[in-house]
Every structure is written in C-alpha cells, then in structure tokens.
Write a structure and sequence with these properties.
Strand order of the largest sheet: 2-1-3-5-4
Bound molecules: zinc ion
Distance between the termini: 78 Å
Helix content: 40-55%
CATH superfamily of the largest domain: Collagenase (Catalytic Domain)
Radius of gyration: 25 Å
Structural class: alpha+beta
CATH architecture of the largest domain: 3-Layer(aba) Sandwich
Length: about 450
C-alpha cells in the first residue's frame, strides 16, 4: 500500500459561525506544507443538541454534492451543541467525515478558539487514521497526553494539547500509513498549538481567548481561573465564584446607572445587602431588579432553575466535601452550561459600556473634561493609558472606577462598590468588590477590611 504523502481537508460551517473564524482556522495550517486546507462556502443549518446521526447525515450529503474525493477529509465547524456533549467526533462508518464544536472552549482551555478548533481537526484526522487501521483498540480511556486520548471528561483535553505528543503505539500505526515527511508536518502543527498553551511561552499572549478582549476585568478575572484547572471540584468552586462576582457587579452597575447615592443606600438596606450577605440574598436582589430589567430577570431565572445558590451552600457553606472528585464532573458541566447562557446575556453590556479607572483629568470648560484613563478589560491588569474628551459634567476622582458609555457621554461612578487599591492581605494593587462590611480581592479571593 502506498503511504500517504499529503493530507487534504475541506472545512465548512453551520450558518452562525463567522467567516473570520473559518479564516483563522485555515490560517493555522498555512505554513504546514503537507496539509492543505480548502474553505468551502457552503453553510448548513443546525440546532442545538443535534444528534450524531443528523450531523453525519448532513456532512455526507455535502460530500456527495460537492464531489469531494474519497481520500479527502470533510470537516464541519459548528457553534451548536450536540446531544452527547462532545467537542468533536469522526463518523465511525466513514471516518473522514468529522464535526468540531467551535464554542464553549474558554472554560476548558486558555486559548484562542481558532487554535482549539485547529487542534481538534488535527486530532480527529490522526484518530481517524488510527481507527481505519485498528479501530478503537488503541484509544486511551485514561488520558496519557497522546492525540488518541478519549477525554470523556472534557477538561482532560488540556493535557493532550499541552503535550502535543503521539505515544509510541499510536505513532507506530501512523507510521505505517503516513510518509515521515507528513508526520513531521503534523508534529510542527501540534508543537505550534502547544507553544500557545504553555504558561511560560511568549507566544501565549498572541492567542488569547475571546473573553480577554470583551469582558470587563472583574468578570474576566474569575472566568480565567475556571480554565486553569482540570479538577472538577475546583472548577465547580471557581465557577461559583464567577457567578458570585457576576451577580454582585451587575447589581452595583445597575445602582450606579439608575439611582442617586441616597437611593442606592436605600436599595441596599431594603434588600438587606449589608453585613454578612449570603449569595441567596444577592440573587434575590437580582430578581427584584429583574421586574424592570429583562436581562436581570433572565439571569435570575437561569440561576434559579439551576439552583446555583443551593450548589454554593452545599459545596462552600455547609457539609463535607466529597473525597472522590469525579462526583463533581456533572455538577461542573451543568453549571458551566448555565454560566455560558448568562455570559451571552452580558455581551450587550460589554458592547455598550467600558469599565474605566480614571488616572488624571483636566477641566476644559463647563461641560468638557480631558480624561486620562485605563480601560479595565480582560484578566491582565497590564493596562494601557488612554485619553478622551468627555461631554459630561461629572466630578471625576482620580483612581476611582467608572462605567462609561462608548462615547463618554454618560459616566457613572462605581465607588465605593468596586475599587482599585492595595489589598491589606497580599499587599498588591487589586480590584476589590464590596461585600457588606468587607471587600473581596477578586483575583485572590482575600476577604479584607479596609480603613476609610
Ligand atoms: Zn496513543
Ligand atoms: Zn489580596
């Protein structure tokens, strides 16, 4: 049998995947000579929770219509979820037909989604070659850091991406099928992705996940932590922290935007958001605001349906922690699902408003200020100074945090709810959020008392 000297693949997408993502995925392979990627313009419609039967049926139809050769891989990229909750799969009765999910990567790996997708493409191609030779004989049910790891627990996917390796047994099978020169190119691509993932790499900064460029910093700080561990109990606890911060900050934003200082105090008192506050009370306040604000109502409903408050009390507040971590796998996946829905509801807010910290200002006339500020976006606090002219007669205070609309015509102070100051516990400058009498260092989770 002739060994394979070139891998050809065509990619296409379901209707709501952006062209840019397709371009970025194809670009990953552009400097890999023995793997050629063709972008097809075809789009297909899919709904969430689709079945394997349905998706592989659609891919097969496209293959027949476009007359793609038998040796070529045909790969569908979709932002929709599948009934088995897998990131990707190849069709066992036609292993060159593959689908890959493009969404929901950011809680599992800290990486630009296009690279996560490219990594899945490479993995599935290699796995389908192995499958053609030895079926499922070599698939690793327990992850060993090989491209042929099964990864039934989604977070384990990080391991194979970080090793970028092929174990000796799997390599043996692949060497019988592929020319060495092709395998070298495969290695080049796997290393490229690994380089973007390992923490000490400089390249990492070029491949940030989407939320690093869209989310306001307090949300991004807690979100980022979720992807830093594969342990399901830790992931669950970080996800609860993320929800906790989302709830509090949304309430504070609302108060800052809609109420006078006096009315803010009254709202906090009426809803007993003082002293030591259980999460349930914050969520209840979210529901009260939800009577006037649809987004709040929706988030409240998601939290309520998923009983996130109960989950918190169970894992954080009361009771013992179960010693077998695997029991939290489903808990995390369900919670993650709710958080993904909640985050998508926040996108409008992030588009309409910037979170800023004022560094300096200068009054130009009665209505205009020249502001120097940092934009608080993403989890990295290495901030760039920006300047703007505001059309607003606010009384800026240096070092305070504000919510500003895109053209700086409305600017709302978030003091004293969100502050940037030295944390008394770790002595670093941190974003801290007010929680009753105390503040929480959002990055480290330190509970601290601040002197006024
Ligand atoms: Zn292997
Ligand atoms: Zn601290």
């Amino acid at each position: 049998m002739m060994k394979i000297s070139h891998i050809n693949l065509s990619i296409f997408a379901s209707t709501t995947v952006s062209d840019q993502l397709l371009d970025r995925v194809a670009d990953t392979f552009s400097d890999i000579p023995r793997i050629s990627v063709t972008k097809l313009r075809i789009r297909i419609r899919l709904e969430d929770n689709f079945s394997f039967e349905e998706v592989f049926g659609s891919i097969e139809k496209i293959r027949a219509n476009t007359k793609i050769s038998e040796e070529e891989f045909l790969i569908l990229l979709t932002d929709k979820t599948n009934a088995s909750n897998w990131f990707s799969a190849f069709n066992q009765s036609y292993p060159k037909n593959i689908f890959i999910q493009t969404t929901d990567w950011d809680n599992f790996v800290y990486l630009d989604e296009s690279l996560a997708v490219s990594s899945q493409i490479m993995n599935n191609i290699l796995q389908s070659f192995i499958y053609e030779s030895v079926e499922l004989e070599l698939i690793h049910g327990h992850p060993i850091g090989c491209i042929n790891d099964f990864c039934g627990w989604k977070p384990d996917i990080q391991l194979k991406m970080k090793t970028g390796d092929i174990c000796p047994e799997c390599l043996n099978v692949l060497q019988a099928k592929l020319e060495d020169i092709v395998l070298r190119d495969v290695g080049k691509l796997l290393s490229k992705i690994r380089d973007m993932m390992v923490f000490h790499s400089d390249k990492r900064r070029q491949s940030l996940p989407d939320f690093e460029t869209t989310m306001h910093t307090p949300f991004a700080l807690t979100k980022r932590k979720i992807s830093t561990t594969t342990d399901s109990l830790r992931k669950t606890l970080y996800a609860i922290d993320h929800f906790d911060v989302i709830t509090k900050i949304l309430i504070y934003y609302y108060l800052a935007k809609e109420y006078t200082e006096e009315d803010q105090r009254q709202f906090l008192n009426q809803n007993r958001l003082i002293g030591r506050i259980p999460l349930g009370r914050w969520v209840a306040a979210l529901g009260i605001i939800g009577r006037n604000e649809e987004v709040f109502q929706k988030i409240y409903n998601i939290a309520d349906n998923e009983r996130i408050v109960n989950l918190r009390n169970k894992h954080r507040g009361h009771g013992y922690i179960d010693c077998c971590d695997r029991t939290y796998d489903d808990t995390f996946l369900n919670l993650n699902n709710s958080l993904t829905q909640i985050e998508s509801l926040l996108m409008d807010l992030f588009e309409q408003y910037k979170l800023i910290r004022i560094l300096a200002f200068e009054r130009i006339n009665n209505y205009n200020y020249k502001l120097k500020y940092n934009e608080l976006t993403g989890s990295n606090l290495m901030l760039i100074e920006k300047t703007t002219i505001t059309q607003n007669n606010l009384n800026p205070v240096v070092n305070r945090i504000y919510l500003a609309d895109r053209n700086f015509s409305a600017i709302h102070g978030i003091f004293p709810y969100l502050i940037f100051d030295q944390c008394p516990q770790c002595k670093h400058d941190r974003l801290m959020i007010k929680d009753g009498q105390q503040y929480v260092d959002i990055y480290k989770g330190h509970f601290v008392q601040l002197q006024n």
